[in-house]
Amino acid sequence: MMKDLFANLAIITSLLYLYTQFTKDYPLSTHSSLKVKLIAGILGGILSNILMQYGIHFEDLIVDLRQIPILLLSFYGGPLPPIIAMIMVIIGRFMIGVNVSAAASNIYIFIVAICSIYIFKARIPALAKIVVMISFSNIIFSIFLYYLTKDMQILLALLPIFWIISYLAGYIGFYMIRYSRRSQLLFKKYKIESTIDSLTGLNNVRKFDEVFNKLSNEVKINRKKLALMYIDIDFFKHINDTYGHLEGDKVLKDLGFILRKYTREDDIVSRNGGEEFTILLQDCDLRLAKEIAENIRNRVEHYDFILNNGQTIKLTVSIGLSSFNETTSDLTLLIDDADKALYTAKRSGRNKVCVCNSA
């Protein structure tokens, strides 16, 4: 008896783990798409039917934990997923055998599914909802079991074990899903943070390298154009020395805003370190790249940078520009050429756009 219920518990634990791994990019919630809810409901119905196959059999009566997937679906997905699973359970139970026990167990699962949906809507803590759902389903199960058996020996032997393992299965299922989701959210958060500059919100140098390598491979295959800007704030050290690093950070944030605003939607804007920024311009010829660079230079020159203390300052940027296949036919030199062009802009007076002429 206990062995069969523990087998149910093991099945729930194993299959829920697999479910959370395969659906980590599309976790079930009340806001999920119809497709996600349908899939979750079907998978929950399959799991409940599997649990029936490994339940405790007393003649026509089958005792198992089929209600647990339905309770979890109600908790996470709202009305639709548990209703789908419930229908599958009802069909599955009648396929095993059409008798009084089957009819009673299907009435039981119907009551559990409908009531769990209403319990989900209650304004109580999450863990309390799970406890109430399981307690209610256990009470209904106990009533139906008494009606079907009227054997106190069976009831006293089975019900305490069933109640304990039901609570255990519900808690483990709830905990596994919650833990898995938190882990996945943290992973996504760290993944994003590993590629984003925390100060400006732009791509960082790691993301720049990743995108540059990807675009380089695409350009080689498709023979598309690719331009690169290197942008550096003129006399930024003077700003830090005069106003402090906090004000320097404010300037960097504002410049990041300008770069995003005056580039195209598919351009890759990055902060590569310090006061140095880059822009990768996909499918962009040298003429258009120079127009964009000149517009950025002009916008920065006439922008009022407001510091945290309310003071307004002006600054300029120097921009180096290279292009494949117009300034270089070697993609490995694109970065070096843009850097050289930036150096030329700095050396020749700053506040300029210079194009590499190595082609």
TrEMBL record:
Q: Which SUPFAM superfamilies match?
A: Nucleotide cyclase
Q: Does Transmembrane show up as a keyword for this record?
A: yes
**Does the UniProt entry include the keyword Nucleus?**
no
Q: What are the UniProt keywords, alphabetically? A: Cell membrane, Membrane, Transmembrane, Transmembrane helix
Q: What is its main location?
A: membrane
Q: Which domain of life is it from?
A: Bacteria
Compartments reported by the entry: Cell membrane
**One annotated Gene Ontology cellular component of this protein:** plasma membrane
Q: GO: which molecular function terms?
A: diguanylate cyclase activity; phosphorelay sensor kinase activity
Parts of the chain that traverse the membrane: 36-56, 68-96, 102-120, 127-148, 154-177
Q: Give me any GO biological process, just one.
A: cell wall organization
Q: What is this entry's stated membrane topology?
A: Multi-pass membrane protein
Every GGDEF domain range: 224-358
Q: Which Pfam families match?
A: 5TM-5TMR_LYT, GGDEF
Q: Any idea what this protein is called?
A: Diguanylate cyclase
In its UniProt entry, the species of origin is given as: Heyndrickxia ginsengihumi
